[in-house]
Amino acid sequence: MSLLSVRNLVIDYAKTRALDGADLEVAQGETVGLVGESGSGKSTLGSAVGRLLSRAAQRTDGEVVVAGEPVFDLPPDRLRHLRKRHLGFVFQDPIASLDPTMRVGAQLRLVLGRGGDVGFHLARVRLDDPRVTRAYPHQLSGGMAQRVAIAMAMATSPELLVADEPTAALDSQVREEVSNMVFSLAADAGTSILWLSHDLPAVARRCDRVAVMYGGRVVESGPAREVLGRP
Ligand code: ADP
Ligand code: ADP
Prior knowledge:
By secondary structure, the protein is of the alpha/beta class. The protein contains nine helices and ten strands. It has helices at 42-49, 76-86, 104-112, 118-124, 130-134, 142-154, 172-189, 200-206, 224-227; strands spanning 2-12, 17-27, 31-35, 58-66, 69-70, 87-90, 160-164, 192-197, 209-214, 217-222. A six-stranded mixed sheet has the order 6-7-8-3-9-10, with helices on both faces. Helix 6 packs parallel to helix 7 (172-189). The longest helix is centred in the last third of the chain and has 18 residues, at 172-189. It is globular. The two termini are 29 Å apart. Bound molecules: adenosine-5'-diphosphate (ADP) (2 copies). One adenosine-5'-diphosphate binds next to helix 1. One of its GO terms (biological process) is peptide transport.
């Protein structure tokens, strides 16, 4: 059974049909790269997974099923539980996933709950430093803030991590390091990854499978070699 099933998903903004019957499956433990040009619908599909769409978006048809749960039909408490227990999200701008008013240590502690080890989770992204724990998000570099966001997203060992261009704003060296961290943390935890990117070669190097979006649909999907057209 798939961990994530997106079936015939149609999502409209006021003047744009962003998803036009998108289908996608992600299996347990699988890493899938979702690629496509800007505007093809990647972000809309990624946020639909957690029903994190902007207010302007309307689901017109189709469904999203995560771990057997139909996310658009869940009552608020079940949806909150699903997001908390089964899903992790990271975005291009790490500040979007962090609380600007809370120190790093405090917000990580909040996610972990009682008995959680903040130092352990920061060490996993190589940030176990009292200065980081005490810092506010805006005091960190982009790469450091993204590593904190990754530590937060992975702290609960989610079944699926949705990563929407999390390295796009980083320098190329930091980009590699951060990507490596995400894939190795996910492998350790058995977490599936849906990695959104317009960088097909980078995705092809890391993901088990690549799905290509065009015009709000997934038009092709398969092992990276096949999608890249290499024998
Ligand atoms: P991608 O992530 O591949 O760049 P998006 O999902 O961001 O694609 O966008 C798909 C389409 O939906 C684009 O035409 C985009 O302009 C439009 N769109 C995205 N977000 C909004 C929004 N909040 N309001 C209106 N249109 C939007
Ligand atoms: P990306 O392709 O990296 O996701 P975008 O520039 O497409 O980035 O979108 C950045 C933000 O702007 C997203 O939150 C998206 O929902 C919003 N957005 C994108 N297109 C539109 C649009 N046509 N109208 C309003 N908001 C949009």
